[in-house]
From TrEMBL:
This is SagB/ThcOx family dehydrogenase. Pfam families: Nitroreductase. CDD domains: McbC_SagB-like_oxidoreductase (cd02142). InterPro entries: Bacteriocin_Proc_Enz, Nitroreductase, Nitroreductase-like, SagB-type_dehydrogenase. GO terms for molecular function: oxidoreductase activity. It comes from the Bacteria. It comes from Streptomyces alkaliterrae. Residues 162-346 form the Nitroreductase domain.
Amino acid sequence: MRVRRREELVCRWRADGLEAGVPDRRQWIQLSPDLVKLLEQAGDGVELDELAAAFGAEHEPDVRKAVDALLDLGVLVRDDTQETPVRRPELWERWGAVAERFHTETRDADYLVDSPERADVAAEIVEEGGAPNVFKEYPDRPVVPLPRKLVPLSASVEETFAARRTHRAFTGQPVGLDAFSTLLFHTFAPHRFVHGGQFGTQQCRVSASAGGRHEVEAYVVVHDVVGVAPGLYHYAPSRHALELLDGAADRERVAALSYRQEPSYQGAFTVLTTAVANRLAWKYRHPRAYRLWMYDAGHYAQTFALAATALGLGPFQTVAFADSEVERFLGVDPAEEFAVYLLSAGVPDGAAGDPPLPSDFTFPPPTHLA
């Protein structure tokens, strides 16, 4: 029998030594120096007899026993040429071991729903204290208060759904201050507050958020909005205002961050959203919670797109940006707050259609049936 080391493992150092994890299994295997040496000897394929002999006759029974255990654990795999190898699903071949292990670790979390333990766990979290602030502000920065008289969203839900498109071309016209204010409010600000029991007052925003934690923050690069000077701002939802971070930020800065995707910076404004992750981690303390900011970022993006559409604006969204560069641009600590989504909007350059289409799209030709 031939055996070989599995091509991809995830490793970590613990206080008691090195551990290895197989990407599609949740368990961790502690690797002694002897086991590490055995895996090195197995390499890309070796006969079991040859592998056992490499450690000396006196250790051969232990080597064979270790090989059997490592085969069961998936750390070693059979490499017999006469057998058809077991292939992993192609998606994990494409995404790699780290993504597969992440997927494995985040499955089947116990949320303690309808469990007596739920209240006890919540009480422990609250008693521990240290809850992160639910609002982020830059109190030392110049503030641009936004209008609180919002534009009525008179378009019907049906019309808005039918008209929602991703726009990649804009007319270059400025966006009015009231429409801009209305879009930021409905996308990122709380509409009301409710009592969250042990966790205190919680926000009610249009977008769903795991546990009402609302970890998504919005940074706005204004290009052409009536009444607002161009620059980079933080949107402060608690006071519905913009806080100026960098008055020199312009379209070119955004272009450099987003691989020069034109709709990222050619609209009237660009919104870079981040996740203040500890707002989630403080309450949800298991690996599955890492997924939650992804869901929430998507909720916010959809609210942004629908509200923009109802206001007659053309929305765009992308995750194609250089994360580290965006975080440096925003001046945030990527260990605590990281870039999640780029949104933009402007007056759309639309083509005729029912519903209206972006200028660079057309209806497909009719299908001809034989």
